[in-house]
Amino acid sequence: SGLIMKAFNSVGIELPHSSKMQSKLGEKVTKNEALPGDLIFFSSPKSKKKVGHVGIITSVSETGIQFIHAAFKGGIKYDNLASAYYMKHFMMIKRNLFPKETRQNQ
């Protein structure tokens, strides 16, 4: 999404605009391995097999995985993966979205 692209661009990391293309980058991690800064991907409301939405994980605690995202309706929001809607559409969590040589230059 544009929110994720702009957030990463603000620290000098270029990402594609679409959540589908962003989901092709990085390494998958499990929900138990999730950390703040990881990207969390969700299916499209129209297709449970296609990535259609992304957020940035802001915290992980006993109450769940919290993330910030640009909601389909309502602007920028914080939500919890434990909510029924997001659990239903959860697809994956990704980390290290940029090439190794870029990380070494950070």
Tell me the layout of helices and strands.
Elements: H1 2-9, H2 19-22, E1 27-29, E2 39-43, E3 51-61, E4 64-71, E5 75-80, H3 84-89, E6 90-95, H4 100-104
Antiparallel strand pairs: 1-6, 2-3, 2-6, 3-4, 4-5
Order of helices and strands: HHEEEEEHEH
Question: Rg, please?
Answer: 13 Å
Instruction: Give me the count of strands.
Output: 6
Shape, per Cα inertia axes: globular
What is the rounded distance between the termini? 23 Å
What level of helicity do the residues show? 10-25%
User: Low-confidence parts lasting 5 or more residues at pLDDT below 50?
Assistant: 100-106
| Mean residue pLDDT | 89
- The structural class is alpha+beta
* Count of alpha/pi helices: 4
Strand order of the largest sheet: 1-6-2-3-4-5
Walk me through the structure:
The structure is a single chain. The protein is of the alpha+beta class. The protein is built from four helices and six strands; from the N terminus they run H-H-E-E-E-E-E-H-E-H. Strands 1-6-2-3-4-5 form a six-stranded antiparallel β-sheet. Strand 2 (39-43) and strand 3 (51-61) form a beta hairpin. The radius of gyration is 13 Å and the shape is globular.
